[in-house]
Write a structure and sequence with these properties.
about 75% helix, mainly alpha, single chain
């Protein structure tokens, strides 16, 4: 697709190119930071008890964090599945499966759970907080053979499956989130229509009302999390943020969020360790309290931020290896040779 064609196709499609990807990264950055806030709040609550305000805030946003992340991954899917099978699968192994496996082992070792059973569960259950990456791997594995099936059909099938899965189980969560992964792909393929729809004031108002309703229901104790019958609230929230974030403009705040979003996997796999270590030190010193939240956030964001910066420079092989498997990626000469062959063909 040429740059001119991308512009004509609209913001959502053109944002899958490197020149227009900013708002996607910004939104992903916000979602990842909300995950850090959630886990910092959970850790603090376990140590010192309820944290009024923070607990309610996390509950209000709980139905939306992971569906938004899945949706954003799905937006990039059409471009991804257009690659040859070898490039597609080696990329997913290098950039998703490898960090998932490595950091699952690190987490299990750090928590004293590195037994044979737990290691085996990495493949079929995900015994740590890294279940999001495990889900993504399943969705990518399913997406390539289904690439010629309309994304709307695939998303609808996953959503329908979520209704018949055991309530509150891992399979219900997986099927629900898969629906939003493939819904993201459908939106990317129909970007102009989606953009026209969410640009209508009444659609935005309805989307906001739907999202607020589902968030408040979750806050009130209603079982709405990853339930197919409440998918309309998540769709409403997606409509609002997909209208809002492309309009935020470029400035320091959005640039910072874009950086977090581009290196979201670093923040996702790393953040909980510094949070728990900081809390353990404070607890051992007898100073743990609700005041500790900002310190936990500094640890949970600051340590991944440092690693993400080192990773972004590409100058530290040991850091790069924590988040990708370079052996599976083409060397520059091979990539250039492949490009010449492609242009010649």
């Amino acid at each position: 697709m040429t740059t001119g064609e991308a512009r004509r196709r609209g913001t959502m499609i053109s944002s899958t190119t490197r020149t227009r990807v900013g708002w996607l990264d910004s939104l992903r950055g916000v979602a990842i930071l909300l995950v850090v806030l959630l886990h910092a709040g959970d850790a603090l609550r376990m140590a010192v008890g309820p944290t009024p305000g923070l607990d309610q805030f996390n509950l209000l946003l709980e139905p939306f964090r992971m569906p938004v992340l899945m949706f954003l991954s799905g937006i990039l899917l059409p471009r991804s599945v257009a690659k040859p099978a070898r490039a597609y699968f080696t990329g997913k192994v290098s950039l998703v499966a490898w960090p998932y496996l490595l950091w699952s082992l690190i987490v299990l070792a750090a928590t004293g759970g590195l037994g044979t059973g737990a290691v085996g569960q990495i493949v079929y259950l995900s015994p740590t907080y890294l279940w999001y990456l495990w889900f993504i791997l399943v969705f990518y594995a399913a997406a390539y053979p289904l690439r010629r099936v309309p994304s709307s059909v695939v998303a609808g099938a996953w959503l329908a499956a979520s209704f018949v899965m055991p309530d509150g189980g891992r399979l219900e969560t997986m099927t629900f989130l898969a629906a939003f992964f493939f819904f993201g792909a459908w939106c990317a393929q129909h970007a102009p229509m989606v953009e026209r729809a969410i640009g209508r004031p009444w659609v935005l108002a309805l989307g906001a009302a739907s999202a607020i309703t589902v968030g408040v229901l979750n806050l009130a104790g209603r079982d709405v999390l990853y339930r197919g019958e409440f998918a309309w609230g998540v769709v409403g929230a997606l409509g609002v943020v997909c209208w809002l974030f492309p309009r935020l403009g470029a400035h320091r705040a959005t640039a910072a969020l874009e950086f977090v979003g581009r290196y979201s996997i670093v923040f996702y796999v790393v953040h909980l360790g510094p949070v728990m270590l900081t809390l353990a030190v404070a607890d051992a010193l007898g100073v743990a309290g609700t005041w500790l939240l900002p310190v936990l956030l500094v640890a949970g964001v600051g340590v991944p931020l440092g690693l993400a910066w080192m990773y972004s420079t590409r100058k530290h092989a040991s850091v790069n290896l924590l988040f990708e498997l370079p052996a599976l990626k083409r060397r520059p000469g091979e990539a250039a040779s492949a490009g010449r062959r492609s242009r010649a063909g």
